[in-house]
Amino acid sequence: MTQKTERLKDILAQARAEVGKVIIGQGEVIDRALICIFTGQHALVEGVPGVAKTLLVRTLAHVLGCEFSRIQFTPDLMPADIIGTNIFNLQRNEFILVKGPIFTSFLLADEINRAPAKTQSALLQAMQERLVTIDRETHPLSPNFTVFATQNPIEYEGTYPLPEAQKDRFMLKISMNAPERDEELTLARRTLGADSPEATLASGAVKAVIGAEDLRTMREELGGITMRDELVAYGVELVRTTRANESVLVGAGPRATQSLLLAARAAAAMAGRDFVTPDDIKAMAGPVLEHRLILRPEFEIEGLSIAEVIRGILEQVAVPR
Ligand SMILES: Nc1ncnc2c1ncn2[C@@H]1O[C@H](COP(=O)(O)OP(=O)(O)OP(=O)(O)O)[C@@H](O)[C@H]1O
Ligand SMILES: [Mg+2]
After folding, report:
1. Which pLDDT does position 6 carry in this prediction?
2. Three-class SS state of 137
3. If you measure from the C-alpha of residue 38 to the centroid of ligand 2, how many angstroms do you get, rounded to a whole number?
4. 209 and 256 in a common domain
5. pLDDT, averaged across the chain
6. Residue 200 C-alpha to ligand 1 middle, in angstroms?
C-alpha cells in the first residue's frame, strides 16, 4: 500500500470512529455517506422520522470540518429562497446580494418532494454545476458542496415526487432503518444520562479529523486505488443489464455506471485496500441502482420489488475471476 492510500485509510477510519461517538450503530449508512462526500457526489437519504438523519449530517459536517445548513422544503418555497437574491439597499443606493442557504458545504435538503418542480430544479442544477446564477450573475458554490436530500415517504396530496431523471443526479440512495434492539437500548440509556447523542456532539468530545480544504486532496488520492479492467467491464455490464431486464420499464443510465465505479473505488478505500474487488462493486449495486429503476406496472402489481430485481441481476451477470 502506498503512503497516500495509507493516509486515506487512516482518515476514513478516524472519521468513522468520530461519527460513531454520536451516531449509534448505522455503520453502513455512515460508510455510504462518507463515500458520497469523498467522491464529491450527493445522496438521497430515506428513513422514517427520528432515525437521526439530521443528526448524522450535522455530525459529518463537524467531523470533516465543513459548514452545515438545512433547508426545509415546503410547497411555497421559491428558488430565490434557497439560492438567494439581490435586495435594494436604500442607504447605499445599490443592490446587495443576500446569499441563500445553498452557500454552504453540507446541505440537508429536507423533504425535497414537498417543493414545486422549479425549486427542486434550482437545487438540482446547483448540485450538478456547483454554481448558481442570481440575476444573470454566476456565483461559485463551495467545492465541498454536498447535498443530502430526504424525501417525505408518506405520499399525500401536494407532494411532488422527484422524477427518476432527477433522482439520477444522486449517487447513492442511503436507507436508514430503525436501530437494532441493543442499539435502541444504548440510545435510551444515553438519553437519560449525560451523554445523549446531541450532548456528545455539543461537548467537544467529537474531533474534526480534517479541515474542509483537505477534502480535495483526499478525493484526488482515491485516484491511486486501482480497478482491473475486467472489473470496470463488470460494472458496465451490471448497469446495462438493468436496461434489458423484462420486469424493468426504465433502466439505469450511464450516470449510474459512473456512480457505481466511483462508489466501488471509494468503498475499497473505506475497507483499507488500494485495489477494488468484485465485492466492492456488488455492495454498491443496490444503493446505486435502487432509486434509478422503474418497474413495469404488471410486475409491481405482482409484488416484485426493485431490490429483488437487483439481486437477480447480480446473480445473472458473470463475476470476473
Ligand atoms: N442511531 C442513532 N444514534 C444516535 N441518536 C439517534 C439514533 N437514532 C435516533 N437518535 C436520536 O433521535 C433523535 C432524532 O434525530 P433526528 O432529528 O436527527 O432524526 P431525523 O431522522 O432527522 O428525523 P425527522 O425525519 O423527523 O427529521 C435525536 O435526538 C437522536 O438523539
Ligand atoms: Mg430531520
Report:
1. 84
2. strand
3. 23
4. no
5. 93
6. 14
